[in-house]
Automatic annotation (TrEMBL), chain A:
It is found in: Membrane. Keywords: GTPase activation, Membrane, Transmembrane, Transmembrane helix. The gene is tbc1d20. GO terms for biological process: endoplasmic reticulum to Golgi vesicle-mediated transport; Golgi organization; vesicle organization. The keyword Lipid metabolism does not apply. It is a multi-pass membrane protein. Residues 58-244 form the Rab-GAP TBC domain. It comes from Clupea harengus (Atlantic herring). InterPro entries: Rab-GAP-TBC_dom (IPR000195), Rab-GAP_TBC_sf (IPR035969), TBC20/Gyp8-like (IPR045913). This is TBC1 domain family member 20.
From TrEMBL, chain B:
Its cofactor is Mg(2+). Pfam families: Ras. Its main location: membrane. It comes from Clupea harengus. It is found in: Endomembrane system. Keywords: GTP-binding, Hydrolase, Lipoprotein, Membrane, Methylation, Nucleotide-binding, Prenylation. Belongs to the small GTPase superfamily. Rab family. This is small monomeric GTPase. SUPFAM superfamilies: P-loop containing nucleoside triphosphate hydrolases.
Length: 404, 236
């Protein structure tokens, strides 16, 4: 068994009536559980997080309006009744925001009348400028508008403003620095995660020198820029809002790993691999991948990857010495030694793993798959809970005090 | 809606698999946000104008297989984000091994023209010197009535940095309000083909125009080139 496509695992329902009924009753049960968690005093935020992560997420935009504020610890009673006017001209980012919002047509539902869309685009501009004006430490980046539009479409202007502000000073804070150095640092987590699960894919990508920019828009828009179906976008937002701010990078890794066959079949050069990976398939099995990302997070928490991520950075600043550096450092990096040992230990008996799908499955991958299967079949809840709990623990540089 | 990302499919359908030693020309397209870099590269690679484009985040990649003098060549276009923060720390990886640079400004936006020196500086910092062929493209000339950058000023700048200047529009020619006899779609094609020819020959990038005439390439001269057989674009 391998990490690659196994579409049927999580998405085989609705094939027959029984499954359909089952799905419907599951859904009803979930709605009831969410309602329950919202009605108790104090509100059961941990339960809401679990609901946001587990299969189907928060189900409807109506529920999202009620639950997302809790996931971000925004209290509705503290919100101003009226939104202030925005001084558009006095804003250093105004021109860029306008340019990006005007071009964001694809983010709105296809059938929406122009007039309505234009009204929403005005609101979108206002939300962005309002948050930026109030928080001069935040800097606009292209792609921020893709996140804000999602909140606007789900929540409406008033609620979206409050939530986006909170999100911007927390989850998105690193992306909004004056420079993108911290964003780049977060992208550096991608390759170590891939390496843990499938060293072959990792090495292939390193050899192609593909870099990580193919995942940049995924990370800084929470996939809002690249997924065309809005339902998928909000489902992912449920997940990311309930999790550690680094979860989007785990999800990015899971997508790459899901496409491992395509990657390895690709020509091993920067252009081909970049092109392949930056074209995100629109039919991803989201629930399965969400569950895998959660599992990966538990297995390889950010704290464990931090050292490698930093190492990656030092490699970049001196890219000419990249190879030498790696050669020299492989001897000293304990985990690479471990990995080599793992590779030596595992001989052909990979056949025992599954019916001849792969010649040699790295043991780390097998270990992961076991966990993933467990996560899927036993109950996503366990893994999800671990993700939620660990959100508090692994936060070396991200401000997480708002997690209850 | 035109799928901006389908350009690769388009190009691979041009012919069977390229022979194993197809030469690759890597061209980076840079310039301020909103000047039309995505439109230009899409137009060249997919052979049509995109209906709508969005902000480019990071770097997009497009390619096209062309043929010059019987040789098949893969032209790779790296379409970059215009916002300054992206170029500072993100895009440098993509400056490596670049064969040519296309600078783009918007003739209706003086700021985008005034930014050109900083884009040139950017290239210098990434060790792309004068020896790397470069061209200057003034985009959106379908909006001539709203022009803020005159051809003469642009030509002076181009001369100063020894690069040829092209003025074009990546918009569908049927929308053009000015010189209706010109076909800008051919023009976009010609711009990138000029670069490809230059790279193939590695000769000075001078176009066959009467000495002393302005260096701005007009469609007319392009047509003449084609008739002389100087252009051999597989998609024409």
């Amino acid at each position: 068994m391998n990490l690659k496509k196994s579409r049927n695992v999580g998405a085989s329902s609705s094939l027959n009536g029984i499954d359909k009924q089952d799905a419907e009753s599951k859904r009803k049960k979930k709605v009831a559980e969410i309602t329950q968690a919202l009605s108790v005093t104090p509100v059961d935020v941990a339960a809401l997080r679990r609901m946001a992560i587990s299969e189907g997420g928060l189900l409807t935009d109506e529920i999202r309006c009620k639950v997302w504020p809790w996931l971000l610890n925004v209290h509705l009673d503290n919100m101003p009744e009226q939104l202030g006017e925005v001084d558009r001209e006095n804003n250093k980012d105004y021109n860029q925001v306008l340019l990006d919002v005007q071009r964001s047509l694809r983010r709105f539902p296809p059938g929406m009348p122009d007039e309505q869309r234009e009204g929403l685009q005005e609101e979108l501009t206002d939300i962005i400028l309002r948050v930026l004006l109030k928080n001069p430490q935040l800097h606009y980046y292209q792609g921020y508008h893709d996140i804000v539009v999602t909140f606007l479409l789900v929540l409406g202007e008033r609620l979206a403003t409050a939530l986006v502000e909170k999100l911007s000073t927390h989850h998105l804070r690193d992306f909004m620095d004056p420079t993108m150095d911290n964003t780049k640092h977060i992208l550096n987590y991608l390759m170590p995660i891939i390496d843990r699960v499938n060293p072959e894919v990792h090495d292939f990508m390193e050899q192609a020198e593909v870099g990580t920019i193919f995942a940049l828009s995924w990370l800084i828009t929470w996939f809002g820029h690249v997924l065309s179906d809005f339902r998928h976008v909000v489902r992912l937002y449920d997940f990311f809002l309930a999790c550690h701010p680094l979860m989007p990078i785990y999800f990015a890794a899971v997508i790459v790993l899901y496409r491992e066959e395509e990657v390895l079949d690709c020509e091993c050069d920067m252009a081909s691999v970049h092109h392949l990976l930056s074209q995100i398939p629109q039919d991803l099995p989201y629930e399965t991948l969400i569950s895998r990302a959660g599992d990966l997070f538990v297995q390889f928490p950010p704290s464990e990857l931090a050292r490698e991520a930093i190492q990656q950075r030092s490699q970049e600043t001196a890219s000419s010495t990249f190879k030498d550096f790696e050669l020299a450092s492989t001897q000293q990096r304990p985990d690479s030694v471990l990995r080599r040992r793992r590779r030596e230990q595992q001989s052909p008996p990979a056949a025992e793993a599954k019916k001849g799908t792969l010649v040699a499955v790295p043991s780390s991958a097998r270990r992961f798959v076991r966990l993933a299967v467990m996560g899927l079949t036993v109950a996503l809840g366990a893994a999800a809970l671990a993700v939620v709990n660990s959100a508090l623990e692994w936060a070396p540089k991200l401000d997480l005090h708002f997690f209850p | 809606m035109a799928d901006v990302e389908s350009s690769l499919e388009f190009t691979t359908s041009l012919g069977s698999l390229p022979p194993p030693r197809t030469r690759i020309f890597k061209i980076i397209v840079i310039g301020d946000s909103g000047v039309g870099k995505t439109c230009l590269t899409y137009r060249f690679c997919a052979g049509k104008f995109p209906e709508k484009t969005e902000a480019t985040i990071g770097v997009d990649f497009r390619e096209k297989l062309i043929e010059i003098d019987g040789e098949k060549i893969k032209v790779q276009l790296w379409d970059t984000a215009g916002q300054e923060r992206f170029r500072k720390s993100m895009v440098q990886h993509y400056y490596r091994n670049v064969h040519a640079i296309v600078f783009v400004y918007d003739i209706t936006n003086a700021v985008s023209f005034r930014s050109l020196p900083s884009w040139i500086e950017e290239c210098k910092q990434h060790s792309l010197g004068q020896e790397v062929p470069r061209i200057l493209v003034g985009n959106k000339c379908d909006l001539r009535h709203a022009a803020q950058v005159g051809t003469e000023a642009a030509q002076q700048f181009a001369d100063l940095h020894s690069m040829p200047l092209f003025e074009t529009s990546a918009k569908n020619p049927s929308h053009a309000d000015g010189d209706s006899h010109s076909s800008n779609s051919d023009h976009v094609e010609a711009i990138f083909m000029t670069v490809a020819h230059k790279l193939k020959s590695q000769k000075p990038l001078m176009l066959s125009q009467p000495a002393g005439a302005q260096n701005t390439v007009t469609l007319q001269s392009r047509r003449e080139e084609e008739e002389k057989g100087g252009w051999n674009c597989s998609s024409c």
